Amino acid sequence: MPFISVTLIEGRTTEQKHDLLKKLTVASAEALDIDPQNIRVAIHEVSADGWGIGGEPMSKLRPA
Question: Which of 22, 9, 4 is nearest to 58 (CA)?
């Protein structure tokens, strides 16, 4: 049973996350030729202060 783990910076809408869950499931089921019911997806959200690029937190890099 495939398990897909996605890490995102906080800020996406519930609808966007639901759409991502659906599309990852459909694409994986097609690629692996398995029943979509056998695929698990987890979204882990990280705050902009907890995500760094080049030593700087995303909260400083991202426009307000």
Answer: 9
According to the model, what pLDDT value does residue 26 have?
Answer: 98
Asked if residues 51 and 57 have their Cβ atoms less than 8 Å apart, the reply is yes
Spell out a b/e string for 4-16, using b for 16 or more CB atoms within 10 Å of the CB, else e. eeeeeeeeeeeee
**Low-confidence stretches of the chain (pLDDT beneath 50):** none
Predicted local distance difference test score (pLDDT) of residue 35:
98
Instruction: Find the catalytic residue in 2, 36, 57, 63.
Output: 2
| 2 tagged catalytic | yes
Residue with tokens 């991202």: 62
Where do the domains of the chain lie, and which CATH numbers do they carry?
3-61 (3.30.429.10)
